[in-house]
């Protein structure tokens, strides 16, 4: 799995913090030896500006991934703590650069102890972290990245399982849709058959009524003929 871009940017920002702290240390050394620190001051101003931009980019990137829920909430909180720590360190470096505070300058060995996961000091604890979550406290960048990769792998597995469930539900929906189409065709055929049968019943009913009418007319005609015959017979019969 490829390395998380956010963590890569965070590592680069931590290295920039270390570089700025070292340059401030060197600038102060030049001032003590009465050498001109003008060039170093210009470099520090550019680096501090770059640090502010990096922190803003980390904050915006974290907001995007947390809003889209591409990382767990606990990981989003942990990263927010890391960003807050960088903001605090940025303020401290600016204050030290401007000479607004008096504090012991960090030793070079301490600064180098916090190199990123790709450096030799990847197993050392991050010197800039304050109020870090309990589950990552004391871990180096490599361990934190491995932990994050494990979380992402778990999330990917969960998404794969969810995708499989959705796929099965889609197939079930398609089967149900096909079954409904077949049932609708059967209902349409039954409706057509019922309509046809109804028409046949109405036609047969009309025929029966017509036959009954004709039968009644014939019966009456027979009676009349018989009466006429009787009258004629009586009339001609000798008395």
Automatic annotation (TrEMBL):
One of its GO terms (molecular function) is SNARE binding. The keyword Coiled coil applies. It is a single-pass type IV membrane protein. InterPro entries: Syntaxin (IPR045242), Syntaxin-8_SNARE (IPR041875), T_SNARE_dom (IPR000727). Residues 41-68 form a coiled coil. Residues 149-211 form the T-SNARE coiled-coil homology domain. One of its GO terms (biological process) is vesicle docking. It holds the Pfam family SNARE. Keywords: Coiled coil, Membrane, Phosphoprotein, Transmembrane, Transmembrane helix, Transport, Ubl conjugation. Signal peptide: none annotated. One of its GO terms (cellular component) is SNARE complex. It is found in: Membrane. The keyword Amino-acid biosynthesis does not apply. The chain crosses the membrane at residues 216-237. Belongs to the syntaxin family. PANTHER family: SYNTAXIN, SYNTAXIN-8. Vesicle trafficking protein that functions in the early secretory pathway, possibly by mediating retrograde transport from cis-Golgi membranes to the ER. This is Syntaxin-8. It comes from Salmo trutta.
